[in-house]
Write a structure and sequence with these properties.
alpha+beta; 3 helices; 32% helix; globular
Length: 96
């Protein structure tokens, strides 16, 4: 997957291992599980990707995540068969 392929894609904020320039601190714990949209891959440090996060309280912020984590998650979600989503919808409807 190329860097340009992830721009504009949805990413769910998750935990990650410490890297040279960022670590999973309180700022990241606050947005854990929140939905975000990939804005860009850093030009000088392509190992980091900037995302636009919608926090649980509805406010938005920009933050960097490891590019490899973002790509892995997007690739996993895009490779799921359509039947996976039908099953998820059925589970949700069964709870209603």
């Amino acid at each position: 997957m190329e860097d340009k392929d992830i721009i504009g894609k949805t990413f769910i904020c998750c935990e990650f291992e410490r890297m040279s320039l960022i670590s999973f601190n309180d700022q990241y714990k606050e947005i854990l599980g929140c939905e975000s949209v990939v804005l860009n891959v850093h030009n000088e440090h392509p190992e980091y990707t900037q995302v636009h996060v919608t926090k649980k309280n509805g406010t938005k912020t920009k933050i960097h995540f490891p590019t490899v984590i973002v790509k892995e998650q997007i690739k996993e979600v895009e490779s799921r068969p359509v039947g996976y989503y039908f099953n998820e919808v059925r589970k949700i409807l069964a709870k209603l």
